[in-house]
Design a protein that fits this description.
Elements: H1 2-21, E1 26-30, E2 38-45, E3 50-55, E4 61-68, H2 69-72, H3 79-87, E5 92-99, H4 105-111, E6 118-125, H5 126-142, E7 148-150, E8 155-159, H6 170-180, E9 184-187, E10 194-198, H7 199-225
Parallel strand pairs: 1-10
Antiparallel strand pairs: 1-9, 2-3, 2-6, 3-4, 4-5, 5-8, 7-8
Amino acid sequence: MVLRLRCASLYLTMMVASALLAGCVGTIATSHEAGPETRPVFLLDHGRHSTLLLSRADGSLVRYLYGDWRWYAEGDTGILRAVPTLFAPTPSALGRQILSGPSTDAAIRDQVRMRILALYRLPAARQRIDRLDSRLEGYFERLRDQAYYNAGYAVEFVPGQDPYTLSNNSNHVVAGWLGELGIDVRGNPVFGNWRVVRERNWRHAARARVRAQRTWMSGCTALRTAPARRIE
């Protein structure tokens, strides 16, 4: 009975946390146009988790993942494993998967062994792509003797550098990688809620929000300066 109550309490806590954070969105404001100095990268939305796929000069693709070690590397994806990852730091994993071309949605979906809810194709400077790929590849090589292969995902994992936490999960790490590519991410994509807008549209929306905020603040000032009405 006590165990059942504890499980119910944990489940309720998770639902409340999900409800509070459901509105968190990561907005990607891209200003790059596809051209000879760019190559595509792909943001893969797997639901509550995200991964990033980089294109290489030889036409191949490499997919990088970040997450809880037991969840990703060992495949322990039960509800009892999800609870600790929400409330305490856990060992992290960096994953890598090499895919063959072409860089099309169909080819990617055919080779990735995880459900893909949405796939975002984003242009990025090829020098930045190569730099990020080289950095992550170098990290993998340094930990080669600790590599662990998950055959179910067809992904190779090595221990991550920092603990996995709710404030440093796969979506935050992917957002950081996008930043290294020169792709601006604003907001908090804690649960993998993504939105892609053009930079021009973003600026227009931002100006509209500023105007609305000024109007609201003007109304608040008027309320504060109005004489108080005495309650009889």
